Hints:
By secondary structure, the chain is an all-alpha fold. 70% of the residues lie in helices and 0% in strands.
Amino acid sequence: xxxxxxxxxxxxxxxxxxxxxxxxxxxxxxxxxxxxxxxxxxxxxxxxxxxxxxxxxxxxxxxxxxxxxxxxxxxxxxxxxx
Length: 82
């Protein structure tokens, strides 16, 4: 996977870090029964996904590889069928 740069982008790292912080907030809030903080943590998790997608769309995500040509539908079906 390292050759495909899967997840090794600023967009991916930023989205994951924001989501992780939200997950930690929600987890701590579950232990100290605080419903408002749990909902806030879950909202931060969702915001992390939105920020990651927005950064990816802004060009900070995975760029198309120059080493491989895109394959057509016929070639793809031949690869998966065989």
